[in-house]
Design goal:
The protein is an all-alpha fold and 234 residues long. The protein has one domain. Helices cover 68% and strands 0% of the residues. The chain has nine helices and no strands. The longest helix is centred in the middle third of the chain and has 32 residues, at 107-138. The radius of gyration is 18 Å and the shape is globular.
């Protein structure tokens, strides 16, 4: 069974290396023999989260955008919410791949990781901005807990993105790894957890239920982070 070996670096080292860069250069260098597609940074937490969030984004998210499914809470889809759904789905799919395959897995993965990572930076920021507009204006229904929960998830997403961008420029592989895992487990998955009653069951529970689900998402994210950083499956 493949072990979790998440090292990374959006950018190849372009300047002459001094001794302080040697560890970064060694870890960021792509493997001469690329890994098989299925041989990635597998953990059970990544797998469960991926299956659920793919169902959430592909079936529910795109279904709502294309009018195949009714929007949650029977509120029509406005432009801000539509842009948010499309960019959030794109951002999430990129995170799924880039968490599973990092540049050290081979030259092909390194090139794809860089391209997808840059695209995710744009999609993630646009998704956050449109999501805030949708949560607090376009689709605000008086449910303060729901709006706060989703905004908190978005803030964690942007924080993870910006921290990852900062860490990779500091050539801090461990810091970049943590930032990207934070982005996936908190930024991508928490909105799914908080939206389970509305999107999965078409329910409108009391507002505090959303906060409980966000808290559960934070706990789940901790399991995912710990497993990935310790290179364990569970």
């Amino acid at each position: 069974m493949p072990t979790t070996h998440f090292v990374d670096e959006h950018l190849a080292v372009e300047s002459p290396q001094d001794d302080s860069d040697s560890d970064f250069t060694r870890e960021a260098k792509p493997s001469e023999i690329p890994r098989c597609f299925y041989d990635g940074n597998f953990t059970i937490w990544w797998a469960i989260g991926t299956v659920l969030v793919l169902w959430f984004t592909v079936y529910k998210g795109m279904g709502v955008v294309f009018g195949l499914l009714p929007p949650p809470r029977d509120v029509s889809v406005g432009p801000a919410f539509a842009i948010h759904l499309v960019t959030a789905c794109l951002f999430t799919w990129i995170c799924i791949f880039n968490v599973f395959h990092s540049p050290s897995h081979g030259e092909y993965y390194r090139k794809v990781h860089i391209i997808l990572g840059r695209l995710a930076m744009v999609a993630g920021l646009l998704s956050f901005m449109c999501g805030v507009v949708a949560a607090w204006h376009e689709r605000y229904s008086g449910n303060l807990y729901f709006a706060v929960g989703n905004t908190a998830g978005g803030c964690l997403q942007v924080f993870g993105q910006l921290m990852g961008w900062y860490q990779i420029r500091r050539k801090d592989v461990r810091g970049y790894q943590f930032s990207m895992l934070l982005t996936f487990y908190y930024g991508c998955l928490i909105p799914m957890w908080s939206g389970i009653p509305a999107f999965f069951f078409n329910l409108k529970p009391p507002g505090w239920v959303g906060l409980v689900l966000v808290a559960a998402g934070l706990v789940y994210g901790q399991f995912g982070l710990r497993a990935a950083l310790a290179k364990r499956m569970v």
